[in-house]
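Backbone description:
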Amino acid sequence: MTTAPTTAATYWEPLWSQGRRYRQPDDAEHRLLDQHLGAGHNRTALDIGCGDGSLARRLADLGYRTTGIDCSPTAIALAAAQNPGRGRVPAWQRLDFTTDDLTALPEPAYAVITCRLVYRWIDDKAAFLHRVHRLLVPGGVFWVVAEIAGRRKSTDPLQSLGITPADAELLTAGWSVVRTHDLDVLRCYALRP
């Protein structure tokens, strides 16, 4: 694992350490996640860009052996501090998925890999997706939640925030199964090799 801050960490760490928090999954998103992933049965799951750990904890509640990773030390500390002390508890690791050595992860492959509100911020999306493909077991699921650009009101200063049609096309290329579901400004993707 890299100990020096990455470019991503130099951007995200100040935001987390200054108290910035991000949109939590709601009941509709949880239902879609449950429907597409099902019970974990002790299979492995990796949450990329776990932030405060809400999605990783949900995966653990579903029965997955979950690891949450984030490039921000503050985000990882926040996630670890919120462990409920009952049931399955995710493992937390400071790691930049785009640049760090992935052999530092606790598992060589994962049945589920999640990426919530992160894909938009990845600079080299093709390299990122290549890394995901390498870690996902045959028959696994890559679960992505991303905001779609242009879905906010035209007066919203964040109207252009989100992934473009080209970003979405790159995301969905090369998968044998692609399922999508829209939730307000968000789109959920269930991708299978």
The chain has a mean pLDDT of 90.
